[in-house]
Amino acid sequence: MKLTILLIIIIIVIIGISRTKKKGEVQELPILEPKTLNVQIDNGINEMLDLIINNLRKENKSFLTNIISNNIVLFQLTHPSMFEITKPSNNEFGITISLNFGGEPKMQEKFQELDFSSSYKYYEYQKIPTYLKNNGTNLKNLEFEIKEILNKVYSLDNQTNIEVEIYDQGPIQYIIPN
Fold this sequence. Notes:
Layout: H1 2-18, E1 35-40, H2 41-56, E2 61-69, E3 72-78, E4 96-100, H3 105-112, E5 121-125, E6 128-134, H4 139-153, E7 161-171
Antiparallel strand pairs: 1-7, 2-3, 2-7, 3-4, 4-6, 5-6
Helix pairs in contact: 2-4
């Protein structure tokens, strides 16, 4: 859990550092107030994805979404531009699934057994195995993969309630080199 919290903090700091108002000036991090949902997996995943798409897509806003069960962040959904490995050349809006398995080799093995796991890009951050996939805005595929991950990797049935925190990071802004 400490590792997951550290990863979230690092991502938030990176976002704040990478945003600029004008040449050479670093924009301050916004005060983060998440939109929090408590939803049942069966019907709540679609509700969460609709909320992300309807509120963040038009202005191409960066975001970070935590998927939480029993006060533990299981995995995250982010704008694809938050990771170089999934960043589209035009910073187009999309939803990236981000899974890390620090200290959880059994969970990683369960994930690797999923038919779609080979479509994820693998990298290690400070020796933490991480898998990323930019799903664009294909809601049907996103909903399917999220439910499969929750069901088969984390052994949660579709009647389980999960907490979702959606952090609006504001519009994607480009770094202007010095």
